[in-house]
């Protein structure tokens, strides 16, 4: 009968798709594990030095034709970090290695070999065209500080955590920027829990230890608060019921609302979701001082009057945005054209550092008129790759034109008309290649997880904006971030982590 035939075909189609999917995945894994042989870079080519292994640098590296340059990557971190899922690492929803991609695997898959030095750039000398680097790792060889000369330099070192010089912040709080920060937070959450259940602990001390304070209502602070409350509600309370009603999460923000970059409707949705989740939001409250056990803030009441509030805490996470790294500050101070720039290296529309020669900057350390996000950094990195690939191509054509012209002038008996035609064709090609448009950022939208399997999204769609929040947005958030993960390996590991934490719960052991 016809309907059985339909089922048989559907089943066959599903079966074939599964085989094709598995074959594709297997091929991806095979390719990852068996990179092609690389050829050594030509020493006569230009030295292209890239500082950093974050969003900007890796997106440049991914699209760069490395055979055109001697590429040298320098960073204290020998991996790329997928920051959007970093808040999930603080509670073990995702394991930290799942969102790290070794830089060696990225460089090894390039056509021409790329050098990598695990070191921090400590100084950039634009006059001598050298970068001073320092191996800051624990194991040091006979050489640990040296200079690397460059012909072209890309500064993509990101930013450090802003503390605004507020006393006690550096000493007592946890930041959330690097893998080590997420691991420290995960450990500290469980340390607070175990200490709160210690024998003969006073009720005030239990209350303090289980008060988790987050400073900064930007996306980092909001996403972390949401993940933390999930961990407490879905796991910790189950395993340690005797303190279940003692947990408190407070989010402190100096401005009148959280998530200022999102639309009003999504700000209200986030605030009401936090209320449901029992996360306290204290807006118009600016932290002024931190001690080992308290946070001191200046709050503005509904009557406009200011008052001081002291909050005891067990865990304090500081997420108040970005500050300029010392190596960037130092470079800015050596370039007169950068004297009015405050938030990073001012760049032109081709991402060239203003007032400097042969230096480009991308991402959080560059000021190009966009927000410091991964989206911007990766688009800037990809733009630079296109720019450098084009520059190399046009240089090759210019050399060919030069050779043909000397043939025309020096070699007797050449077909002058044919050579002239060839030169003209090359010049035409050159004009086409050289017509590179300036960098243009395409905003794809903002997404943030807000806890209890809900997310908010301001998505740019068909020349308009589309604001949405809730459970379906959470599925969209998950699939969007999964597709953005660096490699198939990362994607598989993240999915396994999600399934693992859903099935068995998050691990509450303190490493
Ligand atoms: P980074 O990615 O920070 O990379 C900087 C690199 O430079 C690192 O490899 C670092 O080790 C290296 N480096 C540092 N100092 C030196 C030195 N002296 N010499 C050489 N190398 C150095 N953005 C989004 O668009 N969407 C999100 O969902 C999102 N989520 C985020 C979540 C969190 C928790 C955080 C902290 C940020 C998030 N962001 C997100 C912002 C995004 O991560 C940054 O804008 C992005 O990382 C900037 O890229 P970058 O290349 O400039 O810097
Ligand atoms: P942020 O700069 O976006 O927010 C920091 C917040 O801290 C500000 O709202 C500020 O008013 C507040 N603040 C500053 N000092 C304070 C004080 N003393 N007391 C109380 N509040 C204080 O920083 P964040 O969240 O770290 O983000 C940095 C960048 O990374 C942003 O560009 C952001 O868009 C991006 N990002 C994007 C994410 C996403 O798209 N999901 C996730 C995380 C970061």
Automatic annotation (TrEMBL):
Pfam families per UniProt: NDH2_C, Pyr_redox_2
GO terms under cellular component: mitochondrion
Enzyme Commission designation: 1.6.5.9
Residue ranges of domain FAD/NAD(P)-binding in the record: 47-381
Source organism superkingdom: Eukaryota
SUPFAM superfamilies from the UniProt entry: FAD/NAD(P)-binding domain
Recorded catalytic activity of this chain's protein: a quinone + NADH + H(+) = a quinol + NAD(+); a ubiquinone + NADH + H(+) = a ubiquinol + NAD(+)
Domain External alternative NADH-ubiquinone oxidoreductase-like C-terminal span(s) in chain numbering: 443-507
Segment forming the signal sequence: none
Molecular function terms, GO-annotated: NADH dehydrogenase (quinone) (non-electrogenic) activity
InterPro entries referenced in this protein's UniProt entry, alphabetically: FAD/NAD-bd_sf, FAD/NAD-binding_dom, NDH-2, NDH2-like_C
Coiled coil: none
Keyword Methyltransferase: no
Keywords, alphabetical: FAD, Flavoprotein, NAD, Oxidoreductase, Transit peptide
Top-rank EC class of the record's enzyme: oxidoreductase
Family according to the record: Belongs to the NADH dehydrogenase family.
Identification of the protein by name: NADH:ubiquinone reductase (non-electrogenic)
Lineage: Eukaryota, Fungi, Dikarya, Ascomycota, Pezizomycotina
């Amino acid at each position: 009968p016809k309907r059985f035939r339909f089922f048989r075909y559907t089943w066959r189609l599903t079966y074939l798709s599964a085989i094709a999917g598995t074959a594709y995945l297997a091929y991806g894994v095979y390719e990852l594990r068996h990179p092609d042989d690389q050829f050594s870079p030509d020493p006569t080519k230009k030295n292209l030095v890239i500082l950093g292994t974050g969003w900007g640098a890796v997106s440049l590296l991914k699209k760069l034709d490395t055979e055109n340059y001697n590429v040298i990557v320098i960073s204290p971190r020998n991996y790329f970090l997928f920051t959007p899922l970093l808040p999930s690492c603080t509670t073990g929803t995702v394991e930290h290695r799942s969102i790290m991609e070794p830089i060696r695997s990225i460089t090894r898959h390039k056509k021409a070999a790329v050098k990598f030095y695990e070191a921090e750039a400590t100084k950039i000398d634009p006059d001598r065209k050298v970068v001073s680097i320092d191996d800051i790792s624990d194991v040091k060889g006979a050489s640990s500080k040296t200079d690397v000369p460059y012909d072209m330099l890309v500064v993509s070192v990101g930013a450090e955590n802003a503390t605004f010089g507020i006393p006690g912040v550096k000493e007592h709080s946890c930041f959330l920027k690097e893998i080590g920060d997420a691991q420290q937070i995960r450990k500290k959450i469980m340390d607070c829990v175990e200490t709160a259940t210690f024998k003969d602990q006073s009720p005030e001390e239990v209350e303090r230890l289980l008060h988790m304070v987050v400073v900064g209502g930007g996306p980092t602070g909001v996403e972390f608060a949401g993940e933390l409350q999930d961990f407490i509600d879905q796991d910790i309370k189950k395993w340690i019921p005797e303190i279940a009603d003692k947990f408190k999460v407070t989010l402190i923000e100096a401005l009148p609302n959280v998530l200022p970059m999102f639309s009003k409707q999504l700000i209200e949705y986030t605030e009401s979701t936090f209320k449901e989740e029992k996360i306290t939001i204290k807006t118009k409250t600016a932290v002024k001082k931190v001690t080992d056990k308290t946070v001191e803030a200046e709050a503005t009441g509904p009557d406009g009057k200011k008052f001081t509030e002291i909050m005891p805490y067990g865990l304090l996470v500081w997420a108040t945005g970005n500050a300029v790294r010392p190596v960037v500050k130092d470079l800015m101070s050596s370039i007169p054209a950068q004297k009015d720039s405050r938030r990073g290296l001012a760049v032109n529309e081709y991402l060239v550092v203003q007032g400097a020669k042969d230096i480009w900057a991308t991402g959080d350390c560059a000021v190009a008129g966009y927000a410091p996000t991964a989206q911007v950094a990766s688009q800037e990195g990809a733009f630079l790759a296109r720019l450098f690939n084009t520059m190399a191509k046009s240089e090759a054509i210019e050399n060919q034109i030069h050779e043909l012209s000397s043939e025309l002038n020096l070699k007797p008996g050449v077909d002058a008309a044919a050579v002239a035609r060839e030169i003209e064709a090359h010049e035409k090609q050159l004009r086409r290649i050289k017509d590179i448009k300036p960098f243009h950022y395409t905003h794809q939208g903002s997404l943030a997880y807000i806890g209890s399997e809900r997310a908010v999204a301001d998505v740019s769609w068909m020349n308009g904006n589309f604001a949405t929040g809730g459970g379906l947005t959470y599925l969209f958030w998950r699939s969007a971030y999964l597709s953005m993960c660096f490699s198939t390996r990362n994607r598989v590991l993240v999915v396994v982590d999600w399934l693992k934490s859903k099935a068995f719960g998050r691990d509450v052991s303190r490493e």
